[in-house]
Hints:
Order of helices and strands: EHEEEEEEEEEEEE
Number of helices: 1
Number of strands: 13
Bound molecules: fe (ii) ion
Amino acid sequence: MSAPASVPTGLSVPRSTRPGAGPARPRPRVPHARPVTAPTPYGLDDLQELTREVAAEVRAGRHEVVVDPDRRWYRLLRSDGFVDVWLISWATEQIAELHDHAGSLGALTVVSGSLTERRWSGLSGLRTRTLRHGRGAAFPLGHVHDVANTADDPAVSVHAYSPPLSAMSYYDVEDVAGTTGHQRLRRTRTELVEPGQGVG
Ligand SMILES: [Fe+2]
């Protein structure tokens, strides 16, 4: 059985194995702040800037990064009740399936490696873009996407959500009968996110 590898930032990250060890359980290093009921002061630009700042901290070696070949690894770095900031690693072929972020705004910055995002764009279906290290993306309300590492090397990214994620819905894409190639989303399930326990 494979086990997570603690790796330096930088990052061409080797995978390692340790027989007998189970998959890592995401364990926040900082307590999750009690959600604040006031409107969030964070806009999309603020969240993007925040993820850029924290990504720079990761590149500077201020945060441990672990790559788990069995599942996405993530750790809560900051939580102030208005915003959660997560560090996520992606081994090759690891994916966050097609989802939304309920009532939260979000943003990410890629620290190392590259991520492929497919985002829902209406009748034209899913649009694909590659986010290489240093690049970012913002997630307005209603943003539906999947994110994957399709490259050979692991990827690392910093994500921020405000208000902190409270639920996520998941989707399939299906063809609209009687149209010429139009597609639509079909929600398959909705999951509540416990404070400090979920990223997407
Ligand atoms: Fe997401």
